[in-house]
Request: fold
Amino acid sequence: MKYVITESKLNSAIYDYIDNLFHDGKKIEMVKNTRTDDDTLEDVEVVGAYDFFHKGEDELFTWTGKEYYDRPHNKSVWSKWKELAPILEILDYRKLDTLNNMFGDLWRPIFIKWFEDNFSLPVKTLNDTFPTK
Reply:
């Protein structure tokens, strides 16, 4: 038996799947990224970066805007990344693997829309590759 599904229905199903997969019945926390200051050893805010996670668990994804890549030293290294920003990187590789196995490449633009809808941050580049060893 052959089934026909419209593109909008498929996109809606993927959007709902993404929402359930990442919320997992929990609230996603959005916090400004921080780093330890070398002089004071206190946490300081990193401009243009946010982390997303469930309370008490590992990060789901991280977002970096152009401001994050405005660095006075090593400008040539950061200029490539600045052109790609804002960048969203998925850090939960099990969820990333699930999406790739279920939907191939179809989920990527829908994930960007879901993220923008939920967190009101723009995304130009989705970094969704597994780290190399």
